[in-house]
Amino acid sequence: MTTSTTETFDPLVAEAFAGKLLGLYTGGMITSMVDIGHRTGLFEAATGGPATSQELADRAGLQERYVREWLGAMVTSGIFDYDPATRSYRLPAAHATVLVNSGAGNMAPMSQLQAHLGKHLAAVVRAFREGGGVPYDAFRPEFTDVMDAVSRDLFDVHLIDHVLPVAPGLVETLTRGARAADVGCGTGHAVVLMARAFPESTFVGYDLAEDAIEQARVEAAAAGLTNATFEVRDVAALAPAEPFDAIVSFDTIHDQVDPVAVLASIHRALAPRGTYLMAEPYASSNLEDNVANPMAPMLYAISTLHCLTVSLAHGGAGLGTAFGEQKARELLAGAGFGEVTVIPSPADPGDAIYLTSRSAGSAVAP
Fold first, then answer.
1. Most exposed: 6, 24, 59, 286, by fewest CB within 10 Å?
2. Is 88 helix (H, G, I), strand (E, B) or coil?
3. Domains of the chain
């Protein structure tokens, strides 16, 4: 058997690939099991020590038969340990660290992405055939909550102490008092953290999602902040009354319908020498350079199921999640920014941080 005029069929290669494919399918199924454990509190219940399926179900307030079957998946996938003599299950402490803790290392919330994006698979397949895409509104409001769960702990641990300090002079500027904005702020948690840390500065968060902005306003009000505001706004048309001394954006440019217009708008909205800190997925614009990147398969998959399609749904540029450093530099230069520094994100190994500023000779936004 041959697969082409030049390649001879090798049954051993086919068998190995079938095994790899089965592993990928298995991983997808186990991701759903992790999602269940996260949503039902089973991982938290398991931190109470070894337990039978009934004891674990009682701790979590769940049905034993479902818990027992779920535990079968957990044990055979290597997430839980099992003692057949006592019929007890144990979540190793090292595993609990990345499934339960409230810090940035908790990876359990990421499991929600698969279930959420999978709901729109048929619509994405239709776009493959007919063009267009699945609009951002179709993913809301659930997408708002999923992304908040994924990013909140990362911001809590890293934003103030590790991310902002990578921009020379930014922390000092915000400490003295400045005007700053978060473009594509989502639920606004980053704005809340910055407003609390730098009370002399004022912050505004912009996002298209009304549900996300409402959550942001509620959180800011609950924190008693008077220096944080939020607006539902198309960020391709920013027109602040006064220019900003600093603007940040976190994993939002690659989703935009018109990223060129958005970056140009950010450039216009900055004061001379104003800082722009942009976090975007850490990748190359060249596929061949991403083959060895362990995050690349996830980046391309998430892009296909969400980031690319929400842009193409409106006839947009369709940058995609893995649009990469070369393209990012090109877009920033086209928007009028000068020198760009790129560093790995201290918060997320899958992100890079782009640092640039508005040149002193540029005109201020109206």
1. 6
2. strand
3. 11-100 (1.10.10.10), 117-357 (3.40.50.150)
